[in-house]
Amino acid sequence: MGRAKKVVLAYSGGVDTSVCIPYLKHEWGVEDVITLAADLGQGEELGPIKEKALKSGASQSLVVNAQEIFVKDYAFAALKANALYENQYPLSTALARPLIAKLLVEAAEEYGADAVAHGCTGKGNDQVRFDVSIAALNPNIKVLAPAREWGMSREETIAYGEKYGIPTPVKKSSPYSIDRNLLGRSVEAGVLEDPETEPPEEVYDLTKAIADTPDTPEYVEISFEQGLPIALNGENLAPIELITRLNKLAGDSGVGRIDMMENRLVGIKSREIYETPALLVLIQAHRDLESLTLTADVSHYKRGVEETYSQIIYNGLWYSPLKAALDAFIDRTQERVSGSVKIKLFKGTSKVVGRKSQNSLYTPDLATYGAEDKFDHKAAEGFIYVWGLPTRVWSQKIRD
């Protein structure tokens, strides 16, 4: 079709993105396909990815280690916003997409490509996240999405790949669709498509079954500085190490499993399983520390901002003007969110059991009911009279 001469393709090493390589070349006339795999902490699956891309027909295969950027610039920004989509999902997979889009655009510029491509289908959220993010970063570059247009079944896709030397998966493919990065795992398809079916234990990897967790609680103290986590149990840790250790600590106690019916951006409801031990515990601790250090009006107003922020991330608008404006508000709220929170991990639960901060707004001699009480109780009667005046006037009028 001659849509582009040189393309940078977001590459995972799976069937779809591997088949995208010969498809782009033979069906759409692309002369040069450069693959780009972002190392976001997905582990062993990245091992053979370079060789596989070249064997599938790529002229170059790039692997970019972006783990630190992923945590510091994306995950921690969402953490400061306590971002939970539909009050459950901490956006572990969604957060990766704007970063991958940024890497695609940068690689296209560096290698002189006139288009970028991805392997997303037409049913998911990721196509929106990629397309909109790429357009925000470079509105003039072409975005190709072969899997959205080729109309092939899974079996036909594999057969097409075989025709161009891409081997069929050696073993029977897992019935599940799994996405993994440093922040967690998302799992869908297979028996999970029935909302009534309890997820089998085999779908989990980062979290232990309750029966296999310790019989004594595990305590972890998380320290924050201006809203950012900096230490576990008093030990200062770099962002990647902090996430990795907390994933293990919480996961070993069975903490971090999410089973939800999710409203996709494209209008479909999907049953999703997530494992995000560290991210869920960090949001829980961070939100609690905010309750100690933020005034009531800021804290209450921020809750609405957090819901909007989570929708922005989920809906692929990371590089939008609204996101940038909300970041300014959120960063201002974090200036005094420093201190530590103690979490009790036990049998699949995480519970805040203590918190402290040099910026604490908790005043013991006002809160106490003991002899040290300094609250002016006599002031309460006048306050209540003024506060309740509109209600009394309204009540009197409807009775007249």
Task: Give an overview of the whole structure.
It is built from 13 helices and 14 strands. With 400 residues, the protein is an alpha/beta fold. Among the domains are: 134 residues, HUPs (Rossmann fold, 3-Layer(aba) Sandwich); 138 residues, Argininosuccinate synthetase, chain A, domain 2 (Alpha-Beta Complex). The chain has a five-stranded parallel beta sheet, with helices on both faces. A five-stranded antiparallel beta sheet has the order 10-9-8-13-14. Helix 4 packs across helix 5. It is elongated, with a radius of gyration of 25 Å. The termini are far apart. The relative contact order is 0.13. The model has no long low-confidence stretch (mean pLDDT 92).
The helical percent reads 40-55%
Q: What would you call the shape? A: elongated
**CATH fold assignment of the domain at 177-294 and 337-356:** Argininosuccinate synthetase, chain A, domain 2
CATH level-4 homologous superfamily of the domain at 177-294 and 337-356? Argininosuccinate synthetase, chain A, domain 2
Biggest β-sheet strands, sense, barrel: 5 strands, parallel
C-alpha-based Rg, rounded: 25 Å
SS elements, strand count:
14
GO molecular function: argininosuccinate synthase activity; ATP binding
Subunit structure: Homotetramer.
Binding site for ATP: 10-18, 38, 119
Family: Belongs to the argininosuccinate synthase family. Type 1 subfamily.
Précis, in short:
L-citrulline binds at residues 89, 125, 129, 177, 186, 262, 274. By secondary structure, the chain is of the alpha/beta class.
